[in-house]
Amino acid sequence: MRARDSLRLVAAVGACTAVAVLFAVPALLPAGDAKPPATASSPAAKPGGKPSPPKTSAKAEPVEPADNSYCLVCHLNYENEKLAHKHQVAGVGCTKCHGESEKHSGDEDGLTAPDIIYAHEDVNKFCMTCHPQDKIAKNKNHADVFPAKVADKTDKHTGKSAGPSKAEEQLVCTECHGEKHRMEVRTRKWDKKTRKLISDDGVRMMYKNSPATEGVKSSKKKP
Fold first, then answer.
1. Rounded distance, CA 98 to CA 183, Å?
2. pTM to 2 decimals?
3. Which residues of the chain are modeled with pLDDT < 70?
4. DSSP for the chain?
5. Torsion-angle region of residue 155: left (phi > 0), alpha (psi -120 to 50) or beta?
């Protein structure tokens, strides 16, 4: 009888221990939606009770310079020209402003205009597609560049605005930022609106009736 009582006692103790463990284990495991308590370094522990986003040390990806090698075959003088170089290292190449210009590049006689050329009045509009006027005007050096930013010229008697002066109307970005971006000597000239050849020096490098020059006549009169 004593042996049986001992076995029953051991069984009862084991059962109680198993039940205790069964209830204790879930309490030790973290709940799925449970949040760790706020610490002195956690966002929730900061004064005001508003968590701030964690700071990241990620840096912007470096910009890959544009490849102007296709254009520099003929226009090597623009490799270190300030306007072209500053845009090139920022990833903006010749083709961004002047188009692919494949026919222009393939014409060694230089009679075919680039895909895009700019009339004087179109320069600012194009530059501002990347450089918005409101940002440019914040620079004190641009205070009188734009007609909208110049001093009020409204006539006090008639109430009519005199508008911008001729000098202000003619001032464009490339007056200051692209002085050397313009060719000093042009042997070919095109209409900036139509891209049609206006004049050239009559010099030909390619064979007669080549695909690039066929149908294009020199405007230079023969003596």
1. 15
2. 0.57
3. 1-58, 143-170, 208-223
4. -HHHHHHHHHHHHHHHHHHHHHHHHHHHSPPTT--PPP-TTSGGGSTTS---PPP----PPPPPPP--HHHHTT-GGGSS-HHHHHHHHTT--HHHHH---HHHHH-TT--SPPS----GGGHHHHHTTTS-HHHHTTSGGGTTTSGGGSPP-B-TTT--B----HHHHH--THHHH-GGGS-SS-SEEE-TTT--EEEE-----SPTT-TTTTT----SPP-
5. beta
For residue 3, the tally of other CB atoms under 10 A from its CB is 7
pLDDT (tens digit per residue) in 55-113 = 666 677 889 999 999 999 999 999 999 999 999 999 999 999 999 999 999 998 899 99
Q: Which of 77, 63, 121, 70 is nearest to 98 (CA)?
A: 70
